[in-house]
Design goal:
The complex is a heterodimer of chains A (163) and B (449).
Chain A lengths: L2 H11 L9 H12 L4 H11 L3 H8 L13 E6 L2 H5 L2 H12 L5 E2 L5 E6 L11 E3 L2 E3 L7 H9 L10
Parallel strand pairs in A: 1-3
Antiparallel strand pairs in A: 1-4, 2-3, 4-5
Helix pairs in contact in A: 1-2, 1-3, 2-3, 3-4
Chain B lengths: L25 H6 L4 H7 L3 H11 L11 H6 L8 E6 L8 H8 L1 H15 L3 E6 L4 H16 L16 E5 L9 H8 L23 E5 H13 L1 H5 L9 E8 L5 E6 L4 H8 L9 E5 L19 H6 L8 E6 L4 H15 L5 H19 L4 H14 L7 H15 L1 H10 L29
Parallel strand pairs in B: 1-2, 1-4, 2-3, 5-8
Antiparallel strand pairs in B: 5-6, 7-8
Helix pairs in contact in B: 2-6, 2-9, 5-6, 6-9, 13-14, 13-16, 14-15, 14-16, 15-16, 16-17
The chains are: A alpha+beta (163), B alpha/beta (449).
Chain lengths: 163, 449
Amino acid sequence: MSDTLYDEIQREIAKYPDRRSAILPALRHAQEHYGWLSPEALEAVADGLDLPPARCLAVASFYDMFFLQPVGEHVVEVCTNLSCALIGADRLLREFERELDVKAPGTSEDGKITLRCVECLGGCGWGPVVSVDEEYEEHFKIEDVAPLLERLRSTSRPSESHA
Amino acid sequence: MPESPTFAQPDQNALLLPFAGSRREIAEYEANGGYSALQTALGMTSEQLVDEMIASNLRGRGGAGFPAGRKASFLAAGLDRYLVINGDESEPGTFKDREIMLRNPHMLIEGIIIYLWMIRGAGAYIYIRGEYAKEASILEGAIAQARAKGYIGSPLPGTDYVANVYVHRGAGAYICGEETALLASLNGERGQPTAKPPFPAVSGAFKKPTLLNNVETVATVPVIIGMGGAAYAGVGTEQSTGTKMFSLSGHVRNPGNYEMPLSATYRDLIEGKGGGMPEGRTLKAFVPGGSSMPILMPNQLDTGLAFEAVVAAGSMAGSGAVIVVDDRTCMVRFALRTAEFYMHESCGKCTPCREGTRWLTELLRKQEAGLGTLAEIDLLLEICNRVEGNCLCVLGDACAMPVRSHINNFRAEFEEHCRLGRCPCPDDAPMTELYPPLLKAPLPMVHAG
């Protein structure tokens, strides 16, 4: 495992009276390093926390933001909960699917972009909301789909050192 | 696309966010009276602080509306006591805590420090939903600024008490807004609720006595200490004091968060602040407090925003998320989208919720597709009855209560789906692409059951 991930996990552990509480931040760091929570990534988390890998998997599998399968370089998430759905998130989603030629949840053939629907992101009055690599884009319109995808296709995800 | 989000102009009665834009810098916050409530609090005993909260009659802003002062008074004695802030804001339609964190993070931090001092807490953890990455980093920044000023990490002026505050990010799970699930998640477990007792006040974070409050509740603490509990109790109604953030979304001209005195009404919010319905549309129904609450009808617009007023109208104020629904909307789709959410978010631990939310969703899918039967409408109600009140936590109720209200208020629409064998809505109705009609032509009326 890389030293930096191990160090990051130790810094997280220091914030809590019980190291088990550092499991979510540790999993997050591992996902940033490996791109997804591969068996190797989970092993690294288990080493860093001194917990069994099975426990790390059990916790990771509960939460929507952890990827237990490989994802594209970019992740585009469309909120389809009530407030966004009422104002056109459904058409937005179909436009993304058409442009990417993929059905949500899925990854474009070039492996570049993963598209999925998510539940309420907490931007209901500023919807429809699309989360792009964990950054919110609000008041999102159908015309914004193609330019966004163009931008994503031409850039790599920042802050990532894919192992 | 405009720089998002765009915040609403403040109400003249606003106490939490009485200014336009944001105050993320500590100097700006202090120049406007920030951290002076902390100075006041440092001259008060724990008992005096709890009494002030009780006098304010502040009711928790997370959804349940439990009196905050009384909650604080329940905290068990002990050497290591913790404060946990619930920033897992995930109830569909709710985005108010996010606006508080974006615009006035130091008000939350000051409230946390006052509360920590009140309980002489070993530390505070802000459990913020994982999706709020920007908000988490704003809070980290505010904590760093407060640390540099000596409010965090070193003894508070005139005391030997040190406040420690940490940000703990969730990872995508609605159920972690439920207090026991949140604490399980903070303790490094899967975010599943646990039976009470033990209550968090006895065994919570790290199995220690824990005081757990919503972001807005704690952000209100400096207001109360600053103006005095009794003065705060003079705003709003007798049973619902103060101002509260309301998240307005859906089919309304000016969606956004609006801070309103609790003496105002839904009409003041939807028509006054929200500007009413978009051109050419009429109000069909509105969700008064997040998608888990029974829906209210247009003739209930004059219902007060106060907790007791919403209960009298047959629903609950919940998180203050108001979703406005116009006349073009198919209420079967609306019910289905609601049920699907709770099915997805059910933690799977207890049977009535795990099975009930799934069966409600499956039957509503049939209804929306026009494949349902009239008997299944009653079956849906029957399932709601079997779920409600029979689950480990309130997630099951959160699915059953609204679905029952959708059916009871719009039964004719459900029946029309059954009779026609399809959804009667036109192709440009909301949510059509999520639930594309299976068949344009009516099915032969041959149904089992």
